[in-house]
Write a structure and sequence with these properties.
Layout: H1 10-23, H2 27-31, H3 40-49, H4 52-69, H5 100-103, E1 106-110, E2 115-120, E3 125-129, H6 145-148, E4 152-157, E5 161-166, E6 171-175, E7 192-193, H7 195-198, E8 209-214, E9 218-223, E10 228-233, H8 240-243, E11 249-254, E12 259-263, E13 268-269, H9 288-292, E14 296-302, E15 306-312, H10 314-319, H11 323-328, E16 330-336, E17 354-359, E18 363-368, E19 373-377, E20 395-398, E21 402-406, E22 412-417, H12 432-468, H13 470-485, H14 488-500, H15 506-519, H16 523-536, H17 540-547, H18 552-560, H19 565-588, H20 600-603, H21 610-615, H22 618-645
Antiparallel strand pairs: 1-2, 2-3, 4-5, 5-6, 7-10, 8-9, 9-10, 11-12, 12-13, 14-15, 15-16, 17-18, 18-19, 20-21, 21-22
Helix pairs in contact: 3-22, 4-12, 4-22, 12-13, 12-15, 12-16, 12-19, 12-22, 13-16, 14-15, 17-18, 19-22
């Protein structure tokens, strides 16, 4: 049976014209319409934007670049800064999270490292912060039942332990007791004073206790008869034995390695203090006793390496009738190894003076007779950013990196300082987030410059070789094969090791590492460009350019090369990801950028340690994740660019 085509009649034709005139053309006519003419670059952009995965990867790369090149301006990193009391902390923002029950009734708050112990006037103990003690298995939140069920008179926190004294005089400790930091049966090391010998029944006369303070693996109880009960690691607290010989102690303060005692006669029992820094004359070698003279010391406070001493001329103070005269009778001086501006005490008006000074790990906070609060020293952890609500406080409490202001009713009025770490800290107490941000800048800079160097070499070699042909092509390709035959990673490791041990500056070494990566990674792109040039040089537009007398160099680089730039651009993205991985591999193996300057690669060196892998996952998971995400997204963008730039590829593939 033959198919018969039905012919349209006259009225059908007229009706179709009428319909198109008033109602638009049909789908058949739309199909015959002329497509919009767009430029190749615009078409490539449209095709790329239709690929959701590629667009998402591109957005992630932009975020990574902002994180690596913009964020470092807002996230400072001091390469010389370390803090052993903050090392290996898990991600947390709980370091200043005072429990609400305690905030309304604060008696004391104590913190030497990364956890805090608070005591209410009702005698209840609270613990907050990063409470797990490394790999010891101790969690400071596991407060002993005896402490929870007793009314506590005194409480303090040390580096890895805490002490509480009940109203009956029972001394109870928890946390690490390996060096006898508190009475108990876990004491195993003879380097410390045997706590069970010092306090056979773990009991003290509570009516004689003035205060209890803890330091690095040691504890000291100040008694009102002038004696001091100490136990713990005497090697960590070097002058512990000397200070316990005093019988007129009024107060004590801990540095990282020493105890300093304020004695009843207004002098300071110091052990190792060689001199005092006079804030007026700036002389760091004055004898403390000679400088004090007939004046007395009314208060001492300390950071990790310095001591602040408040000196009062009692005769002048007793005769003073105005605040200006009382201020003239007082002076604050410092002694120790200064590294964070601890001696740079703010100048006060003539009628204002400090009535109380507290010390943290690297900073001091003082409150004046006017109720104003000032802070000075290190501001690595926002310790100096005094909350406006702190002014007018009745008293202040300063711990290692946190500060608290209390009103007359012992209620928390303001707090400022270190809240925590979003990515935790490394084995030196440095913020992992800050190192990731600055490490990304270094890793991407090394990768980008290496890619630029390799691409420039590849374009020159490939273009000349492909266009010139003959002996020039033969020579350049043999050179390319020589470089391509070099085992890349071992050779890069050898050159990097030589550079690291040279006398060059750190920046020069890093630049040369970039050059090494670039010089050794151009061969593949050069061969690809040569192949494309060989095909392009046979086309008619090249013959036309030659007939017009255009220089060979101009034909090669101005006419032919732009036609193969799509290949170059795609290879740039893929090579950039490869250079990121190569730099990270070198740094991971110890042949790239060295600590303390961060890169994502040398941050992954922590993964060499099985202890770190099991217990401190944040030290390698975050840099590994950032590096992986960055390289995967760059590869996705590169693959999709290759597809959309190739007119023969299936756009919907």
């Amino acid at each position: 049976m033959k198919n018969k085509t039905k012919k349209k009649g006259f009225f059908s034709t007229i009706g179709g014209w009428f319909k198109r005139a008033f109602f638009g053309s049909s789908k058949e006519m739309d199909a015959m319409s002329v497509e919009e003419i767009v430029s190749p670059s615009k078409q490539i952009f449209r095709n790329f934007m239709e690929r959701k995965l590629a667009v998402g990867a591109c957005v992630v790369i932009i975020i990574m670049f902002l994180l690596s090149f913009v964020a470092p301006s807002f996230v400072p990193l001091d390469l010389t800064y370390t803090e052993v009391n903050q090392k290996n902390l898990a991600p947390t923002f709980s370091l200043m999270s005072v429990p609400s029950e305690l905030a309304d009734d604060v008696k004391s708050i104590s913190s030497y490292s990364h956890f805090s112990v608070g005591l209410s006037n009702a005698g209840k103990v609270y613990v907050w912060g990063s409470t797990k003690l490394g790999t010891t298995g101790y969690d400071m939140k596991d407060i002993p039942e005896e402490v929870l069920n007793s009314k506590i008179a005194f409480a303090a926190a040390g580096f890895d332990h805490a002490i509480a004294i009940t109203e009956e005089g029972k001394v109870i400790g928890w946390g690490n007791n390996r060096l006898g930091q508190y009475p108990g049966t876990e004491y195993k090391d003879n380097r410390g004073t045997d706590a069970n010998t010092v306090l056979p029944d773990a009991m003290v006369d509570i009516d004689k206790v003035v205060d209890v303070k803890c330091g690095y693996q040691s504890t000291a109880i100040v008694m009102n008869d002038g004696t001091l009960i100490t136990f713990g690691n005497s090697n960590a607290c070097l002058n512990m034995t000397n200070v316990t010989n005093y019988t007129d102690i009024v107060d004590i303060t801990y540095t990282n390695n020493y105890i300093f005692a304020l004695r009843a006669d207004g002098t300071v029992g110091v052990g190792n203090m060689r001199g005092v820094y006079d804030t007026v004359n700036g002389d760091p070698n004055l004898s403390l006793a000679r400088y004090i003279g007939k004046r007395t010391v009314s208060q001492i406070a300390s950071t990790g390496k310095t001591v602040a001493i408040l000196i009062v001329d009692e005769e002048a103070d007793a005769a003073a009738t105005t605040d200006a005269e009382r201020a003239a009778a007082r002076e604050v001086v410092f002694s120790g190894n200064f590294g964070f501006g601890e001696k740079d005490i703010p100048a006060l008006p003539s009628d204002e003076y400090y009535v109380d000074i507290q010390g943290g790990a690297n900073h001091y906070v003082g409150i004046t007779n006017k109720g104003n609060v000032y802070a000075w020293g290190s501001n690595h952890r926002n310790q100096l950013n005094v909350d406006d609500d702190a002014n007018g406080a009745a008293r202040i409490i300063t711990t290692s990196f946190q500060n608290y202001a209390l009103d007359e009713n012992n209620q928390l009025q303001a707090k400022w300082g270190l809240k925590g770490y979003i990515f935790g800290t490394d084995g030196y107490g440095v913020d992992v987030f800050a190192r990731c941000v600055h490490g990304g800048k270094m890793t991407m800079s090394v990768g980008a410059i290496a890619v630029i160097i390799s691409s420039v070499i590849a374009i020159i070699i490939g273009c000349i070789s492909g266009y010139a042909g003959g002996k020039v092509d033969m020579l350049l390709m043999r050179i390319t094969e020589v470089f391509g035959s070099i085992p890349f990673l071992p050779f890069a490791m050898i050159l990097s090791a030589i550079l690291i041990r040279s006398s060059l500056s750190e920046n020069q070494k890093i630049f040369l590492i970039m050059v090494v990566l670039g010089v050794l990674s151009w061969t593949g792109l050069a061969k690809m460009i040569r192949a494309q040039i060989l095909a392009e040089r046979e086309k008619e537009f090249v013959t036309a350019a030659k007939s017009l007398g255009i220089a060979e160099r101009r034909i090669a680089f101005k006419h032919i090369l732009p036609n193969v730039m799509s290949v170059v651009l795609v290879n740039l993205t893929l090579s950039f990801a490869s250079c990121l991985l190569t730099e990270s591999s070198l740094s991971y193996l110890g042949f790239g950028v060295q600590y303390p300057r961060p890169t994502w690669g040398n941050m992954l060196t922590a993964a060499n340690d099985s202890i770190v892998i099991r217990n401190f996952w944040w030290q390698w998971v975050f840099p590994a994740a950032l590096l992986s995400i960055c390289t995967i997204c760059i590869n996705i963008v590169g693959d999709n660019l290759r597809d959309v730039m190739d007119p023969k590829s299936n756009r919907d593939k």
